[in-house]
Amino acid sequence: MSAQQPYSFFHSVERSFDKAAKFTKWDLGILEQIKACNSVYQMRFPVKRDDGNIEVIEAYRVQHSHHKAPCKGGIRFSDEVNQDEVMALASLMTYKCAIVNVPFGGGKGGIKINPKKYSEYELEKITRRYTSELVKKNFIGPGIDVPAPDYGTGAREMAWIVDTYASLKPGEIDAAGCVTGKPITQGGVRGRTEATGLGVFYGIREVCNMPEVMKKQGLSVGIEGKTVVVQGMGNVGFYCAKFFREHGAKVISIAEYEGAIFNANGLNEEEVFAHRKATGSILNFPGSENLKINTDALELECDILIPAALENVINGQNAPRVKAKIIGEAANGPCTPEADEIFAQKGILCVPDMYLNAGGVTVSYFEWLKNLSHVRYGRMEKRFNENMNMQIIKQMEDLTGKSVGDAQKKQIVHGADEQELVHSGLEETMITATREIMDVWMSNPEIPDMRTAAYVSAINKVATSYAELGIFP
Ligand code: NAD
């Protein structure tokens, strides 16, 4: 809480929930049950630093909802970690999973450390100890609670977690499913790196394919030729820019913390990335114009604005100057509630983070399924499909007397590999979720924005799940 922000993070999530709950038919009791955090585990454990000193580490794991098992959510390493934040993030995970039909309850974990201040060996000790604390209290497991990377953690930490878990649970056949975001060699899945950026692209593309929505925004249907501005060239921003460009959109501006660049004819993110690597900055990219203040990019005339860097970058102050027709919240919380109100007045469509950046958790779900089935996606059917497709082509060639060219034959015959299947599953997930949210929104003109519609969609699904369990008659 602060002078500017009178509510705790968890309380503001509750407020957004309450705003949406008004548009549902559920009893107060069921709504209260959905909002509440089911289990909160606060722990303290000692770690011996490299200099011999003992430090007491503060850490958390929160399981917000047990309406589905397991719970799912990242683990962050940050100085800022506190119980309220972990509870808020866990509850957002419940709603996010529900929206994209990933059958998990929400969870989140956090260790209150700045990882930059610890050696790799110390980080390994902390991560392994944290995992064994979770095991002791039955707070981790493929059917209980499945962590993933978040701020300050990555594949390395996930590998330590799975190794610790497996060594404490000898013979547990599904041990690899106790955590996602693992390296491929430790049971990870291909296609996770680009998942969030690709999910953002699929979500926005689906919105752009809806004629009635595009008419309202004064835009033509489809992605082709749309102008796009991307803030942040990290993992999410880079892949957003890549997929928009590859599908015929023009990325006219890219912003990083050192400034922004503009080219009305479109930028190639791979070349910009290489230029930044070589010079240390995206500025002075050949053929583009520098915008000295990076936030100027947010106010450019464009069809689609993708904030993919930080929270609160579009707020009550700059929202009146935003000229984009659609905002795709790739980052978590880039637009404030004040900005939402301004977008509603200006007719800007804000596609909310809670569903738009759910590509990571969706592909985590695919990784978990892979771990439980103990087989790589595509292994069983790839060759079979290729042989069948080849037979079909041969029959067609025999019947028509014409032969299919080699390049075309290769394309038709080709059986899908793991990455292609993961992309396809993600595409299906994002298209379905977009349509479900739009249906909720269109069915009730009182719902003020797509964010509220996304919450309504989540509440309805979680409540139905409780009702079907017979907990609430
Ligand atoms: P990242 O650290 O890889 O990239 C963030 C980029 O933003 C960096 O290149 C950084 O230099 C840039 N940046 C920082 N300050 C900036 C500023 N003021 N102006 C312009 N650029 C600035 O992080 P990421 O994984 O790409 O995550 C970006 C956002 O997406 C975060 O809000 C994150 O919570 C959210 N998100 C990420 C994932 C994921 O799978 N990585 C999933 C869901 C949500």
What's this model, at a glance?
The protein is α/β, with parallel strands linked by helices and 473 residues long. Helix content is 45%, strand content 14%. Residues 196, 231-237, 255-257, 294, 308-310, 330-332, 357, 360 line the site of nicotinamide-adenine-dinucleotide (NAD).
Describe this structure in words.
Among the domains are: 37-186, Leucine Dehydrogenase, chain A, domain 1 (Rossmann fold); 195-356, 3-Layer(aba) Sandwich (Rossmann fold). The chain is built from 16 helices and twelve strands. Helix 4 (120-136) crosses helix 5 (155-168) and helix 12 packs across helix 15 (418-443). The mean pLDDT is 95. Helix content is 45%, strand content 14%. The protein is globular and about 70 Å long. With 473 residues, it is α/β, with parallel strands linked by helices. Bound molecules: nicotinamide-adenine-dinucleotide.
What attributes characterize this protein structure?
473 residues, alpha/beta, Rossmann fold, seven-stranded mixed sheet, five-stranded mixed sheet, 45% helix, globular, binds nicotinamide-adenine-dinucleotide
SSE topology:
Layout: H1 9-21, H2 28-35, E1 39-48, E2 54-63, E3 71-77, H3 83-99, E4 105-111, H4 120-136, E5 145-149, H5 155-168, H6 195-208, H7 211-217, E6 227-231, H8 235-246, E7 250-256, E8 259-262, H9 269-279, E9 289-291, E10 304-307, E11 326-328, H10 337-346, E12 349-351, H11 353-356, H12 359-373, H13 382-400, H14 406-413, H15 418-443, H16 450-469
Helix pairs in contact: 1-3, 1-16, 3-16, 4-5, 6-8, 6-12, 6-15, 12-15, 15-16
